[in-house]
Structures are given as C-alpha cells and as structure tokens.
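To whoever is on call:

I kicked off a structure prediction for a single chain this morning and the downstream step that reads the tokens threw a length-mismatch warning. I double-checked the sequence; it's 304 residues and nothing unusual in it as far as I can see. Pasting both halves so you can look.
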Amino acid sequence: MPSTTTTFSSADEFSPLKPILPNLSTSEEMSLLMARIAELNRANTVEPSVACSTDLLGQDKNAVEERLLQLQNDQKRLLEKISELEKQQKEQTKATADQSDQFSKILQKISELEKQQKKQNENTTKATADQSDQLSKILEKISEMEKQQKQQHEEMMTKGCHSVFAKHSISWNNDYPHIFYFEISIKKMISAIDFGFAVREQTKLDGLIMKGASIYSSSGSFWCNGSSTAGKPYGAGSTVGIGFSFTNRQIIFTKNGVLLDFFTLLDDSSFSTNALFPFVSLCNYGKIEANFGPKFKFDLTTLC
C-alpha cells in the first residue's frame, strides 16, 4: 500500500502567539485575547484528529505533540494576560471611584467655604450698616447740640447780659511787636462770660456781642468770622486769653497759659472799619480781672 502524507497548508493555524499591541485599550485588548482563546480551542479540537490521522498515516507524532504543547502554553499565557488585565481594570475602577469620592469631597468643601463667605459678607454688611447708622446718629447729636448752644447764646443776649469795651482800638505793643494780647482771670461766674475783640459798630453795652466779633465763650466755643468751633470751657479760677497778630491777621485763644487754637480773621466789608476793640460780656452776676500786660500767664515769646 502506498504511504499517505498529510500536509498542513494553513500557516496561521499553527503560527506562534502574536504579541499584544501595547497601544490598545484594555477593552480592545480583552476582545483580541478572547478571540485568540477561541482560536486555540478550535485548534485543540482539530489537533487530536490530525494526530490520529498522522499516526495512522505514519507521520511524525512528536511534531504534533510539540505543536499541542505550544498551543497549550499559548493558551496559558493568554489566560494569565486576561487575569492581569482584569486586575488592572479593577484597580482602575477603584482609582476612578476614589477620585470621584475625592472630587465630591472637594465640591462639598467648596460649598461650605462659599456658605461661610456668604455669612461673613452678610455680617460685614450688617456691621457696616450699624456703624453708618451710629455715625449718622452721632453727627445728628452734634448738630443738635450746636443748635442748642447757639440758641442759648442768642437767648442770653436778652437776659441781663452787659458788656464793657476799651476806649481805643488795639495797636502794636512795644513789648511784643506785631501782636496785641490780653487775658482775663475769672473770679466769680454765675451764668456766662464772653470776651474778645469787636468792631466799633458792635460796641453796645446791653446784650451779647455776636456779629463781626472774635469771641471766646465760657461754654468753650471759639467764635470767628461768623461761625463757632468747639473748644475748652472755662469758669471760676481760670485764666483765659485772646490775641491778634498784625502780620498774618490770626486770632489766638489760650487757657491757663496754653495755646488752644487759632483762626485767620477775614475782613468784613459790611463794617466801615475793621478796627478791633477789646471787650468783656457778663450775664447776670460775675467778676473778672483783666490783664493787658506786660506779664501774662501765656508766654508770648513762643509766637515770635
């Protein structure tokens, strides 16, 4: 009987395992691996019959067994690769879950911070509004006190207030050139005292002097150029002074030897002359002592 030779013409059927492409995604690589396993399974079902045919036909049995072993090794490597990919996929899934959880916590923290910031802004807005309201009340109170003070001062003009004036207007003093200054010491005060400089048209004996006068009132107000500024009040036991600088037309106010404030006196065109006369006004009963120098409680040399 002639011998029969079996030839395997399909090179791909017994080709070695192709390498897995590293650039494929996990799902794509898994699909390829599953297809390869199916291919190997088909090869396993075919190879025994081939081996039997080869044995019957006298082919080399060792070659077939070697091929089967190779296919089994390939299948084992594929299963290991699948196991490794499944493990990587689980790790990636866990990492994704961890990142999602971390991102959720970050969003929650941002939400809490936004709530805190909103609350702080609300508190700041409320505090600012409260401060603004408080400042408005303070300014309103100051305005009210100024009105009351002015009203009281005007009322005193018609309630037994009388004034005395110097016979001559102020002039340079040889002891202290360029400035005229005098002080009064309060011995007794019942109601109020004003003193300062007045123009000739205002040298009246009854009532308080207001228009065109520079005044230091016992209530603490400094009057100059028709408006008042809060200063320091004085009473019995105090020595207060007022001065006029001929060089810069400044009015100065002092108390107990200390310079309190100064203002620039403006010319008033409504008066025929701006010559200034020293005066003192007393309301009800009072007693003062005037000092026109040369020695004062305030040191005039500090102004030179």
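Update from on-call: the warning came from a stale cache, not from the record. Cleared it. Sanity check on the structure: The chain has a mean pLDDT of 77.
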